[in-house]
Design goal:
Layout (H helix, E strand, L loop, with lengths): L2 H8 L16 H9 L22 H103 L1
């Protein structure tokens, strides 16, 4: 048995797979390999060890699927409960707002009446001031017109004389 074969036998793991072997060759073989061109080596895909396989039986897969389904059903049920409680809360808030508006309807009407009457008073006061100013201007013009009429009469009398 050569040293390589011994190393291969010793390289077998407890899981049954062969570990990587350090190829330590004699110096004379190393010199021969350096002189000859090395062919390209292709790496083989590493096969998983027997203990590392992710293979699961159909029973395990179906039980996991059933577990996931039951978890999803539980989540959906919880979401439905949350949605219904949110809907109820929104309905309660809407009813309370309606009640407040209905109760405060009379108060709102009174407030609006007070505001409108206050605005009406302000408008009436400003309009009455403007009317007074216009009346005074009109009166002054009438006085001027009367004076001018008198002057015209006086001038007409002078012309006739």
């Amino acid at each position: 048995m050569t040293t390589e074969e011994k190393k291969r036998k010793n390289g077998i793991n407890s899981t049954g797979s062969i570990s990587e072997i350090d190829l330590q060759e004699s110096p004379s073989q190393n010199k021969q390999q350096e002189q000859t061109p090395k062919p390209q080596k292709f790496r083989k895909a590493k096969m998983p060890k027997v203990g590392e396989t992710n293979w699961k039986s159909e029973y395990n897969v179906s039980s996991e699927i059933n577990d996931k389904k039951s978890q999803l059903k539980d989540i959906n049920h919880k979401l439905a409960n949350v949605a219904s409680t949110v809907d109820r809360s929104i309905e309660e808030l809407n009813s309370k707002i309606k009640q407040l508006i209905e109760k405060d309807d009379a108060r709102i009407k009174n407030t609006m009446r007070e505001l409108l009457s206050g605005m009406k008073d302000d408008i009436v006061i400003s309009l009455s001031k403007q009317i007074e100013v216009l009346e005074s201007r009109l009166f002054e013009r009438e006085i001027e017109n009367d004076k001018l009429k008198q002057e015209v009469k006086d001038l007409n009398k002078k012309l006739e004389d």
